[in-house]
Structure formats: C-alpha cells, structure tokens
Amino acid sequence: LDAGLYLRSVYTINEQYAVRSWDLRFRAPMAHAPLGSGEVHTIEHLMAYYLRLDPKIGASIVSFCPMGCKTGFYLSTMQDVEAEDVRRALGAVYKEVFALKSASDIVGLNEVQCGNPGLYSIAATNDAMAQYMRCLYTREQAEEAGIGSIYNPAW
After folding, report:
1. pLDDT reported for residue 108
2. CA distance 11 to 48
3. Contact 82, 92 (CB under 8 A)
4. What is the C-alpha separation between 8 and 75, in angstroms, rounded?
5. For residues 127 and 108, what is the distance between their CA atoms, to the nearest angstrom?
6. How is residue 71 annotated by DSSP?
7. Which of 33, 50, 131, 136 is buried most deeply by CB count within 10 Å?
8. Would you place residue 79 in the very low, low, confident or very high pLDDT band (cuts 50, 70, 90)?
9. What is the pTM for the complete model shown?
10. Quick one: which of 91, 25, 81 has its CA closest to 58?
11. Contacts 24+ apart (CB under 8 A), 143-150
C-alpha cells in the first residue's frame, strides 16, 4: 500500500445510512518511518476542525482520527462523499492553514480543549503535509488549486 487516499470500506446502518471509511495514508507501511507523535497530534487537531468547515463534506464528517501505526489517518463520512470531494477538501485546508508558523496556528491546542497541548510539531508537520499533498496533487493540479507551495516549500 502506497501513500495516498483510499476508500477503505462502506458500512450501511439500518439499511439507510452509508458510512464511508477513508484511509488517508501519509506513509507506506513498513517502507517508511511512521509519522512522529507531534505530527500526528498536530494534523489531528487541524484536520478534525477545518475539514468540518468544508461546505461540501463538513456536515458529513463523523470522525477524523489517527491510525495506531502512525502511518496516516481515518476519516469517516456519511452519505455521498467521493474521493475527489475529500481530496479537494484536504487541498482547501492546506491552502488555508499551511505553512504553520507557531503553536498559535493549531486550533484547540490549549489546556481546556486538549489533554496534551505541549505535544505538537511545526516544521515536521509542514513537511509531512506537503509530502502527503504531493501524493494527491500533481504540480499542475496544485498550482490550479492554489497550493503550488507543496512543490516548493519555503519554510
């Protein structure tokens, strides 16, 4: 399995609701080092918040959580969310949030909303997100989406 975006499974609840489980694979299992704890925690905070603001998929999000192996994340959505919707939403979050400059850029990183606000990583998260976005966007697509910096990071 390579880094990328995969539809992992579709579950039907009460023969009425379709729940899609997405695999946001940042690192190929056993082929690359896993994400660090600071990267996982930072990405979890940012994506769990900002993806829910997306006009297309936000209301459909059930959960965003890290994989125990620290090679990526699971995103669960309801109803008719497609891979292109998820890819576009990830690009929109990247465009709005990255590159991170300080801990104040990380939503919810405080003692009231977080159990470990000291666990974060700015530089490593910037690198991990740019690397992941390069799996989802060609250089031309990234430029069109306004995230061409994933190919020329300036941090």
Report:
1. 96
2. 21
3. no
4. 10
5. 21
6. S
7. 136
8. confident
9. 0.95
10. 81
11. 145/88, 145/91, 145/92, 145/95, 146/95, 147/91, 147/94, 147/95, 149/98, 149/99, 150/94
